[in-house]
Amino acid sequence: ALERTLSIIKPDAVAKNVVGEIYSRFEKAGLKIAASKMKHLSRREAEGFYAVHRERPFFNALVEFMISGPVVVQVLEGENAVLKHRDILGATNPKDAAPGTIRADFADSIDANAAHGSDSVENANIEIAYFFPATDVYAR
Ligand code: CMP
Questions:
Q1: How many A from CA of 27 to the centre of ligand 1?
Q2: For the chain, which terminus, N or C, has the lower number of CB atoms within 10 Å?
Q3: Rounded to whole angstroms, how far apart are CA atoms 40 and 63?
Q4: DSSP per residue, 9-65
């Protein structure tokens, strides 16, 4: 099915100057960029985005990391975009990420893991709306 997913290039990957390389991998996989912006998240924005993880032991470290520098947030559109994007990213922990995935190539740790991707169509819709008003998402 034609889907949209929310993708975040995290502060570690922005600092490594691999935004274009990561966008290129999305494009080569047939994912189209339907919305895009750079943003330095406030603590409140990062906490709100990751609210489902509030009770997890890694929550504070995750928020600290996500506000440590600017991120690049995009909506990707394409066939099976949610799963396709997660496949391109690789496993959450770079130690488990398959060779050639974004996390295998650019992530340093489970916290500094280069990128975020929505885990379901339902969550994608929530996460897209968190960052982009509907008028700023362009059908591709
Ligand atoms: P992300 O896809 O952005 O969603 C939540 C983030 O929490 C995850 O990527 C990791 O960067 C981070 N994290 C840290 N520790 C863990 C853990 N044990 N399990 C899952 N995510 C973790």
A1: 25
A2: N
A3: 12
A4: E-HHHHHTT-HHHHHHHHHHTT-EEEEEEEE---HHHHHHHTGGGTTSTTHHHHHHH
**CA of 59 relative to ligand 1 center, distance in Å:** 8
What residues have CB less than 8 Å from 94, skipping those under 6 apart?
A: 103, 104, 107, 108, 109, 110, 113, 114
pLDDT band at 116 (very low <50, low <70, confident <90, very high): very high
Type of residue at 128: I
Please answer whether residues 73 and 7 qualify as being in contact, where contact means their C-beta atoms are separated by less than 8 angstroms: yes
What is residue 105's predicted lDDT score, i.e. its pLDDT?
98
This model of the complex carries an ipTM of 0.97
In tens, the pLDDT along 42-86 reads 999 999 999 999 999 999 999 999 999 999 999 999 999 999 999
Assign 117 to helix, strand or coil: strand
